[in-house]
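Incident log, structure service

09:12 report received: a user says their structure output differs between two submissions of the same chain.
09:20 pulled the input from the user's history:
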Amino acid sequence: MVNLFEPVKLGAVQLKNRIVMAPLTRTRACPGRIPNELMRQYYCQRADAGLIISEGTAISPQGVGYPNAPGVWCKAQVEGWKKITAAVHAKGGKMFLQLWHVGRVSDPEYLNGGMPVAPSAIVCEGHVNLLRPQREYVVPRALHTEEIPAIVADFAQAARNAQSAGFDGVEIDSANGYLLDQFLHDGSNKRCDKYGGSVENRARLLLEVVDSCIGIWCADRVGVHLSPRGGSHAMFDSNPEQIFNYVAEQLGRRKIAFIFSRESSTEGSHHLAAIKRLFAGPIIANEGYDLASAQRLLSFGDASAVAFGKAFIANPDLVARLRTGAALNQPDPGTFFGDGAKGYTDYPVMAACDHEVAAQ
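09:34 re-ran on a clean worker, output below:
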């Protein structure tokens, strides 16, 4: 029976285990959104994961929506990431860069006074991430058709920069209510041009971005992040099965490295099963899994690997803890975002003697 600790190949990348570190926004980058030494330490601590997927990394100044989240559009950012990937590789780890444009999930304060962009001028419900005092999202500016090729070009340049920074591949974020996801869902996409209306049109931008990245990396080093259930940042679709089945089929034809799908362990896996069947390639499942539920998912063949988020925040040695059945540290939500080492690089690891006892 397949288990979490066996190796697996996702596209061209051989992983030492099936435990993936999910992308996690932690807002620790330097001014200028430059990755730094503290981030290097954080990722190195977690290099025992089969694969690390970086925190969401903005492809352009237009794509940001959080304070101090890193970017990958300029030389200083690439140089910062280069130190991180070199250190992760020195510890035997593999790392993909998540390419990110938040679209309407932003605010002029993060955009030097500019307006957030989106497929349509439909406001995101809720409050802007991490701005205090709290404020509601603004109505975004609908992208003009002629602007969209520049967005594709920004993704492509970010993919090139990821190569220069030494990553093993890229993951395109088309999930959790960010720009590419906004184009997929008919609740946020009311366009009447070739990027709106039909399933094929709403998926067009994502597939153009995927094809641009394939042209740089080859398909077997490109992954795509999806969240078929919607929910995050007010995402909804009148027929999610139709749009996500189409996307899965199209990504399967392109033979990309994997689909990363946010699929709760407590809500069944009907989306996951259909996506796996139509994609016919490796699936990484994520959201709320523990050792038992992750192992059960793998044993049923519904996924090739399982990603952990909050567990990796609080347990830099998560792989060893899962392998030995050791207790897990509990995460401190108050330090998920912010600055400094507290709640970032200071979670305790198991002592060597504890590791040995647990393994017996």
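09:41 both user submissions now match this output. Likely a transient worker issue. Closing.
09:42 reviewer note: Residues 148-164 form the longest helix (17 residues). Residues 356-360 have pLDDT under 50 and may be disordered.
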